[in-house]
C-alpha cells in the first residue's frame, strides 16, 4: 500500500501535552523514565526485573483463559527471563469498535518484531490488555459500518467482559455481509471477554498476539498489597494530585482526577465504587458495607472482588506483566504521565509510553476524486470553512482578494491625512473614520465576490465537501469513527497490509492508499 506521512501537529487533532511529549519537550522530562526509541528500550531491558514466580502465575492464568480455544500461542516463552511484553489496552467494543483499535494492535505486533531485530537475544510478546472489568456499556455498545450505526441492546449490567454476547446475534443478522469469525465468537463463547479473545486470535493468527483478561483471582492476588494500601492510606490519590499540580504549573491540562479509594467492588452484574464513610467501607448504590477488618480479610480471600480504576489499572498491568512499553492514543499517553509518582512510590518500573500508529485510509475511489478536484490529501485535514475558501480561491480564474485595493486605499488616506493636518489638527479623527468605513466596505464587498464565486463553483465545492465527509466523517478523524470491516470486507488482506506498511517507531500520521 502506498503511503505518506504528516507531522502529528499538522493534523490539528491532538492535545498539547501529547504533542510536547512526542517531541521531547524538556518541561516533561521528569514525568517519564525513558523516551520510546531504541536507546530507551535498551535501557528498559537492562533494568526490568520480573520474578519467576510472577511469570508462572501469568502463564497459568493465560493457559486457563485460552482453554476454550483450539489454537493458542506458546505461553512457555513467558517463563524465560529474557522475554518481555509490549502492551496496549482497550475496551471490548463490539466488532472491535473504531478502526484505531486495530491500529493499536498492529503497533504492538510490529514493535515486538522490530525489538527482536534490534535485540535478538531477547524475546518480545505483544499483549492486548482487554478492559474486561470496565462497566461503561454505552461506550462499547455501538459500532459504525458503511455509514450506519449498530447498537447492542441489553439489560445486563456490571463488568462488560462477564456479559453474555449471544444477544449480538441480532446485529450479526443485520450487517450487510455475514462475518463468520464474529458470529462464531459471539454465539459460541459464554462471555464477551472470551469472544474478543476468540476473534482477535483469528484476526491476528500467527502474529504471536496474547489477549489477557486481568479479571483473574491469581493475578489480583499479586496486587493485594497495593489494594490494601489504597484502602487504608490513599497513597495513589496523593501522588497523582502532586504530579497533576506540577503539570498544571507547566501549563498543561490533565486527563484524570484520582479518588481517595481507586478501586471498584466487583461481582457478577455489579461494579460500583468503594467509598469510606462513617468508619466503614461502603459500596455505592448498594447496601453492601464492610468494617476495616472485614474488607482487608476480603482482599486476602477474594482479591478478584477489587477492580482498579484508571489511576491504578496501569500499575496493576505493570505489576503482573514483564512489560517494557505501553502503547496508547493521544488521550492515554497524557494521563499515564500523571502516574509517574504512583510508580515511584510502589517501586515499580515506569514503562516507555508510546503513541500508537495513526492513519487515514484512502481507497481508489476517493483517490480518483482527490485527483479530479486537483487537491492534495493533506489539504483535506483543514476544517470545512478553510478548505472551502482555499479551494474556491485556487480554482478561480480571477483573483478574489481585494488586498491590493485595500493597500491603495490606505496609501490614499495617508496622503489625505497629511493635507488635512496641515489645515486643522482636529481633522485626524474624521479622516480615520472615513478610511475605516471605506476599508470595511471593501472587505464586505470582497466577501460578496467570494460568495458569488462559490456559487459559480457550487458543483465542485459540493463534491469536495462530500469527499471531506467521506474521509473525515462528522469532521473528525476516520480512525475514530469507522470500523475496520469497511475495508476488510473488500480486502481480507487489509490487516496484513497494515502490518507491512506501518512503522511502530515513526511517530507521524500515515496516509495509506489501498
Average pLDDT for all residues:
93
- How many helices? The count is 23
Segments where pLDDT lies below 50 for 5+ residues? none
For the record, give the distance between the C-alpha atoms at the N and C termini, rounded to a whole number.
Answer: 6 Å
EC number: 6.-.-.-
Keywords: Coiled coil, Ligase
Domain Bacillithiol biosynthesis BshC N-terminal Rossmann-like: 2-357
Domain Bacillithiol biosynthesis BshC C-terminal coiled-coil: 359-513
Can you describe this structure?
The chain is of the alpha/beta class. Helix content is 47%, strand content 14%. It is built from 23 helices and 15 strands. It has helices spanning 8-11, 16-22, 38-47, 52-65, 100-118, 137-140, 169-174, 180-188, 192-203, 217-222, 224-233, 235-249, 292-301, 313-320, 332-337, 340-345, 364-373, 384-395, 403-423, 428-456, 458-471, 485-488, 494-501; strands at residues 3-6, 83-90, 123-130, 142-145, 148-151, 210-213, 263-267, 270-277, 280-283, 289-290, 306-308, 323-328, 352-355, 358-362, 509-513. The strands form 4 sheets. The protein has a 5-stranded parallel beta sheet. It has a 5-stranded antiparallel beta sheet with strand order 10-9-8-7-11. α17 (364-373) runs antiparallel to α21 (458-471). It is globular and about 95 Å long. The termini are close together.
